[in-house]
Amino acid sequence: MTWDITEIQKWSWKKHPLGGIINDPGNSRKFETGGWRAFRPVRDENKCTQCLICFVYCPDSAILTKDDKIADIDYRFCKGCGICAQECPMDAIKMQDETGN
What is the pTM of this model? Predict the structure, then answer.
């Protein structure tokens, strides 16, 4: 299907096609998105103070916790953005090249 959008600025809201509808809440667990990652976060347990700042900032909820402590990183959903490493005040998270270089 193709759309003629030559006069899209004049369209009312009713003419725009429906997009991105999520009918099944929580369905993101079905779509593992970590496969496009180029870098993975690796946590140094000796440096980590369990402040959970990485957990708060992770946009993918890939930092897993248990009993108010970091338990693991769920690489099935981590996209390798590096926000956790950037925000870690103890420099306990390093981004590692997925190719090992």
Answer: 0.70
Tell me if 11 is assigned to some domain.
no
User: SS3 for 84?
Assistant: helix
The per-residue pLDDT for 4 is 77
Which two tokens mark 50?
């369990």
Q: What is the largest CA-CA distance in the chain?
A: 60
Residue 18 lies in a domain: no
Q: Using CA atoms, how far apart are residues 70 and 62, in angstroms rounded to an integer?
A: 11
3, containing H or E segment: none
Per DSSP, helices labelled H in the chain are 53-57, 83-87
